[in-house]
Structures are given as C-alpha cells and as structure tokens.
Amino acid sequence: MKRLVELNVIPPLKEIVPYKGKQFLKKYAWYANLAYSLEDKVLASSVIGGPNELVIYFRGSLLLPTEWMTAFSGKMVDYPLYENAKVNKKFWHQFKKADFRFSDILDKMIENPETAVSEITFVGHGMGAAVYATFAALDFYLLKSRQDISLQLFTYGQPRIGNRQFARALNTAMFLKIRVTYKNDIVVNLPNYESISQKEKYLHPVMEYWIASDNCECMNDALADDEIVYQCHGGGKYYSDGDFLDESEECSRGAKPFQFLLNNGPYFGIKIGIRSSDLPPWIK
After folding, report:
1. What does the alpha-carbon distance between residue 178 and residue 155 come to, in Å, rounded to a whole number?
2. Cα dist. 184→30, 168, 250 in Å?
3. How far apart are the C-alpha atoms of 243 and 121, rounded to whole Å?
4. What is the mean pLDDT of residues 27-51?
5. Strands (DSSP E) along the chain, which ranges?
6. Interior CA angle at 66 toward 204 and 97, to 5°?
7. What is the CB-side half-sphere exposure of residue 209 using CA atoms within 13 A?
8. Rounded to whole angstroms, how far apart are CA atoms 82 and 139?
9. What is the predicted pLDDT for the residue at 237?
10. Three-state DSSP class for 17?
11. Residue 90 phi/psi, 5° resolution?
C-alpha cells in the first residue's frame, strides 16, 4: 500500500459559483426531480440528455423523519472495491439488491449502436444519491470503466455514505463528481460526523457546491442574480495523493442549527421530490 505523506495544513477554500456554473448545476437538478415521476417500484430510469450522453437518474426516498434516523443507525461494512473503505450497512445492502436493475439499463444502452454512448451521467437526490447514484458511479468506474466513455456524478442533498477511505476512493476517482447541498439541511450532515459512539467516522468527499442563500422563484432556464452558491474545498491536513482530512466548516457542515426536511431545496428553483412528468426543456 502506498505510504501517504502529509504535506501541509491549509485553510478551507470557498469561492462563489458564477451564473454559468449555476446553470450547469441546475441542468441535472431537473433529472433528480424527474426521478420522482417514476412508478413506486421503479428505482431508476434513463434518457438521452444530449448528444451521446446517457443520463441515469435515481429516485430518492420519501421516508418520514423517524425512518430517516433508522436508516442512519446501521453499522458500517466493508466496501469490497477499495482497501479499508467502509460504508453504511443499510445503504450498501439496498444497493446490492437493486444493482441488477440499472446494470441492465447500462449494458443495453452502451451496447446499442444507435445511442453511441460516450458519456454516462449518474444523478440522484437524498437517499437515491447515497444508495444508488454514488455506488453505481464508483462501481462502474472501478469495474467497467472504458476509455471511450466518460463519467459524471451529480448528487443533491446527499447524506454521508462511508468512512474517510471511501471518501478518498471518490476523491481520487478520475471522473467529474458534483455534490450539491442546500443551506442548513440536516440530511447532508447525517450520519453524524462528530458522533463519539462511532468507531469509524463518516466523511463526505471533498468537493461541495453549497446553496447558501436562495431567493430564486425561477423555473425553466432563468436563475436569480441574488442566489448565492459557493464551491467549497475541504481544509485541514493535505496528503500527497490529493486527499483532505476534513470536510469544510465553511459550508453546509458549519451552517448550524441544522433543520429537517429542507433537503428538497429548492435547488435553483426546482423543488426536488415533487412528482412531475415534465422533461427538462432542452430535451423536449
């Protein structure tokens, strides 16, 4: 195993996301919301979101607050594809039960000459982001990645999934990973990072896009000028493999007091979780 060298300690970084960047983040929030129009027993679906782009979107959970807390009470288990990585036991078991469903979607679409897929984007919200989108993207990268297909992962309101080694697996994976959080949403701060009862601390991957204030009443392609979104880089000890030790206190983790049931946003004017059959305007 490669020995990591601690280089230095740097402060967390936070910079404002420009208008075009917010448009890019909003594009995939449409898909996260579209997933809630799926039938109750359908976890995933797909659509061609652009030239040669396959978008696979996963529905989140509509659990009650007490059910959310139960979901986060599970112990960690080994994540078999990365050394010393551990993940939430309940999340992992749910993913393995459903893995074959969207694996079939992937295989059929990739092999279909009419689609000519050269880019795959995984999108999820809340529990769907944690249980399905993230595991599906990382598993595909580690097991099935091809030089002729690029990957992207967009999550909205994602809870923590695993320990620092699992966060490192995501940090060092060579594909685009976007994690969007909303104000002081408690869900993205679960399971509790600071819990002394856990032998293994949960940790998010380093990059975060935090909606700090949202006065946006907009839909379609418009975005309010006074909506403030930060790109946040974790701070703390910095290692030779490009990994950080800690999440940034400058963004959602430091936005206390946390509140429940805020993970629907709105994300750039989109209230994720409200059933809608509307496709994003650019693919109608």
Report:
1. 6
2. 22, 24, 12
3. 24
4. 78
5. 6-10, 13-16, 44-50, 53-58, 76-78, 86-88, 119-125, 150-156, 176-182, 208-213, 228-233, 236-239
6. 60
7. 20
8. 10
9. 52
10. coil
11. -70, -40
CB contact burial 180-204 (16+ within 10 A = b; e otherwise): bbbbbbbbbbbbeeeeeeeeebbbb
Please tell me the distance from the alpha carbon of residue 181 to that of residue 1, in angstroms, as a whole number. 33
Q: Supply the Cα-derived Rg of the chain in whole angstroms.
A: 18
Whole-model pTM: value is 0.85
Encoded tokens for 220 = 């379609």
How does pLDDT run across 173-232, given as a tens digit for each residue? 999 999 999 988 888 888 876 654 556 788 888 789 999 876 555 444 445 556 789 998
Q: Which residue has the tokens 């989108």?
A: 133
Report whether 171 contacts 182 (CB < 8 A): no
pLDDT tops 80 at residue 246: no
Please tell me the distance from the alpha carbon of residue 84 to that of residue 197, in angstroms, as a whole number: 20
Exposure string for 73-85, b = 16+ CB within 10 A, e = fewer: eeebeebeebeeb
**Token pair for residue 115?**
């689609």
Q: How far apart are CA 187 and CA 131, in angstroms?
A: 14
Q: How far apart are CA 88 and CA 68, in angstroms?
A: 13
Residue 169: count of CB within 10 angstroms of its CB: 22
Query: CB within 8 A of 108, min separation 6: which ones?
Result: none
Burial class for 66, CB neighbours closer than 10 Å (0-12, 13-18, 19+): exposed
